[in-house]
Amino acid sequence: MDVMRMAGFSMASAVAVILLRRMRPEMGLTAALAAGILLLTMAVPMVAQVVNGITNVARAGGVKDQYLTQLLKVAGVSLLMDFAAQTCRDAGEDGLAMKTELAGRVMLLTLALPAMHTLLTGILSLAP
């Protein structure tokens, strides 16, 4: 039921922001940002469920904690940078949004380096 509530809130907020921008353009951005923050706070309680689910599956599969930690960091960075980029787009700052996405990709590559190193080391150890 949370999905229906969040979808309804999003659609109602979009309509309210569109109407507000017609009457008071300077308030449209503020309303859009506030709606985005409220929607994010509605989603935060579900994050614990996702983390617990991923942790249980990873432990059942014998995944080491260090890899699980990296996976969760990658997921968090990806979601947060996407939210930041979309917020920039809402503000009409497409250039800043693209730079935010680029910064997020660089962060993701940085977080992936230890896993890539381990993978390459394993592959190279198999070579004669």
Characterise this structure.
This protein has 128 residues and is mostly helical. The chain has helices spanning 2-23, 25-60, 65-90, 94-126. Helix 1 runs antiparallel to helix 2 (25-60) and helix 3 packs antiparallel against helix 4 (94-126). It is elongated and about 70 Å long. The termini are far apart.
Mean pLDDT comes to 88
Task: Please report the number of helical segments.
Answer: 4
Percentage of residues assigned to helices: over 70%
Q: Estimate the global geometry from the Cα principal axes.
A: elongated
Instruction: Give the class from helix and strand content and strand pairing.
Output: mainly alpha
Residue ranges: pLDDT <50 for 5 or more in a row?
A: none
Question: Can I get a quick summary?
Answer:
The protein has 128 residues and is mainly α. The chain is built from four helices and no strands. α2 (25-60) packs antiparallel against α3 (65-90) and α3 (65-90) runs antiparallel to α4.
